[in-house]
Amino acid sequence: MSTIALAPRTDTDALAAEFARCGRLRIPNLLREADAARLHEILVRRTPWNLFIIHDGPKVMPLAQWQALPAAERKSIDEQMAVAARDKFEARFLQCPLTETGEPFAGLIPELDALARFLNSEPFLSFMRAVTGSGKIAFADAQATCYRANDYLHRHTDEVPGKNRIVAYVLNLTPRWQPEWGGLLNFMRPDGQVGEAWVPGFNTLNLLRVPHDHFVGSVAGFVEAPRLAVTGWLRHR
User: Which pLDDT score is estimated for 227?
Assistant: First the structure.
């Protein structure tokens, strides 16, 4: 995969009006169909995943290293997190960093390098500026993510001082996800109720203005399919 490109579209004005009204937006059919299909295959078969957890602070380790730990140690950590997750901000999923500054990290496989470059290409960034109404967007950071059974990301707003985040994005790359499987992107109302929940849609880009109170619900324990996406923030310098 040498290049990745946006699918042709004529609805930019309507998308911009919806984002201005709601501060969040779903854009179906973002990429050319063949590009999305190849990216899905790469995430399933060739992506070097890390285990990412938030438990007494964020922690990252290669998935192979986690799997090499004694079963009793992994079970103990899982149990500790399960208890903490009842009352604290916790998270657990797989991730593969692609870019922090707009330049792809060294050593990425070619397809993920191409993806990081696409997300920082002028066609994509110009489209994002048009849809969000923010001319300040200068670059996108990015990571691939994989949620498996019992993975989750608790409630947060994405606002971090010094990160200059304007809009959060999630490019979903999971075919045929079912709402009963969990893993939905949930948006909170001021009264503490869930106002809306989005099911992952293949080749669909989700956008949400920062700050935006939301969480990813736990994937059900019976689910065998991975919930795959590329996520990050559109930022200014």
Answer: 98
Cα 43 to Cα 80, 130, 167, distances in angstroms: 29, 29, 24
Handedness of CA 128, 228, 180, 156 (dihedral sign): negative
Residue-wise burial string across 219-236, b where 16 or more C-beta atoms lie within 10 A, e elsewhere = beeebebbbbbbbbbbbe
Q: Which long-range contacts (CB under 8 A, 24 or more apart) does 99-103 make?
A: 99/140, 99/141, 99/142, 99/232, 100/141, 101/139, 101/141, 102/138, 102/139, 102/140, 102/141
Does pLDDT of 139 surpass 70?
yes
Q: Which residues contact 164 (CB under 8 A, 6 or more apart)?
A: 235, 236, 237
pTM of the shown model: 0.96
Type of residue found at 107: G
Residue indicated by tokens 């998935």: 63
Check whether 1 has a pLDDT greater than 60.
Answer: no
- Of 29, 44, 55, 81, nearest to 227 by C-alpha is 44
- 199-230 pLDDT, tens digit each: 999 999 999 999 999 999 999 999 999 999 99
- What does the pLDDT look like over 40-74, one tens digit per residue? 999 999 999 999 999 989 999 999 999 999 999 99
List of long-range contacts for 111-116, beta carbons under 8 Å, 24+ apart: 111/1, 111/38, 111/39, 111/42, 111/46, 112/42, 112/47, 112/144, 114/1, 114/2, 114/3, 114/4, 115/4, 115/39, 115/142, 115/230, 116/142
Longest CA–CA separation in the chain, Å = 55
